[in-house]
Amino acid sequence: MGIFRLRSVVANAKQLVKRQDVPKGYLAVYVGEVQRKRFVVPLSYLDQPLFQDLLRRSEEEFGFNHPMGGLTIPCHEEAFVHLTAQLRIS
């Protein structure tokens, strides 16, 4: 993902934060292959390479048109929970 595209994703993410009932400094994302579950994650994750890989997958699958009205990440919930646990301890 080029730096311009990453900036676009971050800008869209910041707009989503304003529209949701999400604490300042956090972002709501929807995760799952079929059934999607809402997670609230720190904006600092946007700088992490592992999280950026998920953003690339999201862009490839959905572009900037996310069916849930928020950022949708196409991965298994268990994998997302594992990844965010790794980010919390790093």
Automatic annotation (TrEMBL):
InterPro entries: SAUR_fam (IPR003676). One of its GO terms (biological process) is response to auxin. It comes from the Eukaryota. Belongs to the ARG7 family. This is Auxin responsive SAUR protein. It comes from Cynara cardunculus var. scolymus (Globe artichoke).
